[in-house]
Amino acid sequence: MELLKVIEIRWHGRGGQGAKTASLFFAEIMLATGKYIQAFPEYGPERMGAPMKSYNRLSENPITLHTNVINPDYVVVLDPTLIEVVNLTNGLNKTGKIIINTSFDSEYIAKKINFNKKHVYVIDASKIAIKNIGKNIPNTTMLGALIKVMNILDINEALNNIETKLNIKFRTKTHLISGNLDSIKQAFYEVKN
Amino acid sequence: MIKTVYPTGKIVAKTGNEAIAEAMRQIEPDVVAAYPITPATEIMQIFSQFIADGIIGSEYIAVESEHSAMSATIAASAAGARAMTGTSSQGLAFMWEMLYIASGLRLPIVMAEVNRAISAPINIHGDHSDSMGTRDSGWIQLYSENSQEAYDNMIQAIRISEKAKLPVMVTTDGFVISHCMEVVEIYPDKDVKAFIGDYNPDRYLLDIKHPYTLGAIDLQDYYFEHRYQLSKAIEDSKNIILNVSKDFFNSFKRKYDFYEKYMLDDAEIAIVVIGSTAGTVKLVVKELRNKGIKAGLLKIRVYRPFPSKQIAKELASIKAIAIMDKSDSCSGAFAPIYSDIVASLYSNGIVKPKVLNCVYGLGGRDITIKQIINIYEILIKIASGIKYPTNIINYINVRK
User: Fold this and answer.
1) Quick check: is A132 in a domain?
2) What letter would DSSP give residue B331?
3) pTM score over 0.90
4) A43, A53, A57: which to substitute to probe chain B, counting the most B Cβ within 10 Å?
């Protein structure tokens, strides 16, 4: 539809990995650049470890659409074990891009999910998160990868913005701030096709 | 950057629940009593944090049920406090008998109501069954399309309730709005406080110099008169709501009315809808207009009091109308909004429009652009004279 000049993103994760937080966070970062935004989790009760989804919409114009995201332009996968469980490319536009947290290369993953390798991006986000944050919470790391793949934000500007937000979010856990920032930066430079 | 409508407003990203909690922080009522429930839980979570952090001086009463939440809110309001609460679905149902007492005692309580389906089967998602069930309880009902409207409605609700001496519920669609982060413009605290003003009730139970009785028994001799007065107060609140809207526009530059018309004035076919779905319908209307189809939308904001004469007038020259209800009366006939609108049309001598009732989205079932286009396509057929049954409910996207 002509009027839907809206970029749509679907996040896949498991309850507790921070997919919802990542989408909310991403929306706030994009708002700071002047974009209209939406961020919402898959509506439902959240259960630790269960597959869940979260969404973003971005646009230059006010977004009045209030339906589920059916045909995302980007899919971000926080948990590699979801490949076997969830149809990750469901509704993904043919020219859309999928970014997966995995230690495998994009060729292997593309085969596994039956999607054009050209549009499959991989990053070992769990490894990066464990190294920098000390925990396998790969949400901010995947945010760094998404910023790179979408190519709509200046990474340094984004990092400054994120730091301001993290200072508020982690005001009682300040030791987590630099680790998250490092993760975002590392993922930005390491995500590959 | 996104421009503010109000010169000193601030653009932020907030979910519906966060926007409502923000309004409550700025309103800073004397007393809030609540028993949080999905999907309204965050409102009280955030609001009580403001109190715990010493940001506001409101009294928060953590009660053991919604019945008690409404009871405590009623007591606080009767005592002379500015009192608020919030709930959803089963919580609202559990408040039932107390809702009628709040309105019957003419107490200006404001409630944030996040729309959610009613059990059984148990379901936590958004539809309008809960608040539609309370449509005859003597409460004013303001529905919100998005977080901005929820925030603005909360601020206006304080003024409306205190002027009308009636309780007001402000609703948002469960999850679709309550949990959706969107762009919201927040006004400075001092300007919101100036708009709502101080609460100085004419009389209140803790005013020991002027004692009076509240909630006395009222049998065949006067009960009817008091119920008539309540009905009259609801009718009279129409002007109050419009005046507060006008003041709100003068203060914050955002325009509100009983309803919003979207490309309706020259429309030949139209949808009437409440809540977040209106936003999706707007996109479809724009698309149809691009194709030269004269489609329109009427989004109801004020459902109680029902702006009967005004809506009848707006719809008078439309050939085919679909009334979309996100609740079902289980009446063997039609759903609430349809019944109100058809009665309004007929009682105002307007019998020409063909009016279709569509029930959709129960239990939070998604309503898609395609389905809305389908409804307009049916309206085009009806408008062109093709026969289509309008004396039954059209259930959208249900397995029969």
Assistant:
1) yes
2) S
3) yes
4) A43
